[in-house]
Amino acid sequence: MSALLGVYDRDLVLVRGKGSRLFAEDGRAFLDFAAGIGVNGLGYGDAKVLAAIRKQAGHLIHASNLFHTEPASLLADRLASLAFPSRVFFCNSGTEAWEAALKFARKIGRAAGRTEFLCFERAFHGRTLGALSTTWNPKYREPFEPLVPGVRFLPWGDLGAVAAAINDKTAAVMLEPVQGEGGVRPATAEFLRGLRELTHERGALLALDEVQCGLGRTGKLFAYEHAGITPDLLTLAKPLGGGLPMGAVLVADAFASAIAVGDHGSTFGGNPVAAAASLAVLDRLAASGFVPGVARRAKTLRAGLKKLQKKHAAIAEVRGLGLMIGVEFKGEAGPVLKGLRERGVLATKAGDRVLRLLPPLVVKAAEVREFLAALDAVLEGGAGAAP
Question: Which residue segments constitute the domains of the chain, with CATH numbers given?
Answer without folding.
Answer: 47-286 (3.40.640.10)
